[in-house]
Amino acid sequence: MLSLKHIEDSNKNGSVSNGESGDSDAVEYAQFGHEPGRKYTDFDLVRKEIDNQTARLAGKDKGVTDKPIYLTISSPNVVDLTMVDLPGLTSLPVKG
Hints:
Helix content: 10-25%
Number of domains: 1
Order of helices and strands: EEEEHEE
Number of helices: 1
Radius of gyration: 15 Å
Structural class: alpha+beta
Number of strands: 6
């Protein structure tokens, strides 16, 4: 489940820090439900963590699971929105 959360821009100079941080003054950050309190400001690390959590929940063959990955992205550049991706059919056969 992906939630976009609008926040006020607390960093007035517009810079965004790189890497992961516990700082609350980063302009944009992401948080996973399985890692409460940990903020990601490097979205390449967010992509990697999505892949890692998918492998942990669904296996390395990218099977289907009923366990969701919760991700919240907080930014001054989004509106409040929640999306749920429901499992569906794949166009290519998957072993297993």
